[in-house]
Amino acid sequence: MKAKGLRAIYPGSFDPITNGHLDILDRSLALFSEVTLVVAGTVTKNPLLSPEERVALIRKVIGGRKNIKVDRWPGLIMEYARMHKYNAVIRGLRAASDFEHEFMMASMNKQINPNVETLFMMTAQNLFFVSSTMIKDIFNFGGDISPYVPPCVMRHLKMRKNQ
Q1: Residues near 115 by Cβ (< 8 Å), separated by ≥ 6?
Q2: Where does 41-135 show beta strands of DSSP type E?
Q3: Better-predicted residue by pLDDT, 99 or 25
Q4: Separate counts of helices (H) and strands (E) for the chain
Q5: In degrees, to the nearest 5, what angle opens at C-alpha 71 toward C-alphas 43 and 107?
Q6: Mean pLDDT value across residues 133-154
Q7: Do 91 and 107 form a contact (C-beta atoms < 8 A)?
């Protein structure tokens, strides 16, 4: 059941966006009137794609889906939520190992902005092992990532590699 008027952000590095991210996004749309994917600034990860490339790819991937926005934000996600009046943050969980980190982040986020709830969603069983980091590693070593990313992401990465 969709909660009318409730809007959520789905932040992440999305480097690159995967079918696991899309699974969480599509299920989030059943709950919220609007979901904004926020390409978040991160200083701890070694990016494969620039933030601009990630935003462009996400826009291409979501194409005809309704009630989705894409944005980029280099700062604290809770500040973004406060500025844009969002009600919730969506966080995907793949395995139990994700939970501790996500729980700590959600707890800190609640301290920063107590008006925003964090919703944890488990990724689909057939995608729980997929992460952007793993996808980058497999791709960089010449492996086939096509089952785990949308076709336009695969094309973009191949084109980029051949440049």
Answers
A1: 82, 87
A2: 68-73, 88-93, 117-122
A3: 25
A4: 6, 5
A5: 55
A6: 92
A7: no
CATH at residue 40: 3.40.50.620
* Cis peptide preceding 16, ω within 30 of 0: yes
pLDDT digits (tens, 9 = 90+) for 9-67: 999 999 999 999 999 999 999 999 999 999 987 655 678 899 999 999 999 999 888 99
SS3 content of the chain, % helix, strand, coil (to 5): 45, 25, 35
Q: In the predicted model, what is the mean pLDDT of residues 135-146?
A: 92
Residue 145 structural domain: 3-161
**What predicted TM-score, i.e. pTM, was given to this entire model?**
0.90
- Torsion-angle region of 100 (φ positive above 0: left; ψ -120 to 50: alpha; else: beta): alpha
Q: Is 8 within 8 Å of 32 (Cβ atoms)?
A: yes
Question: How distant is the alpha carbon of residue 75 from its chain centre?
Answer: 16
For residue 2, what pLDDT is reported?
64
> What total of structural domains would you count in the chain?
1
| Catalytic residue annotation | 21, 45, 94, 132
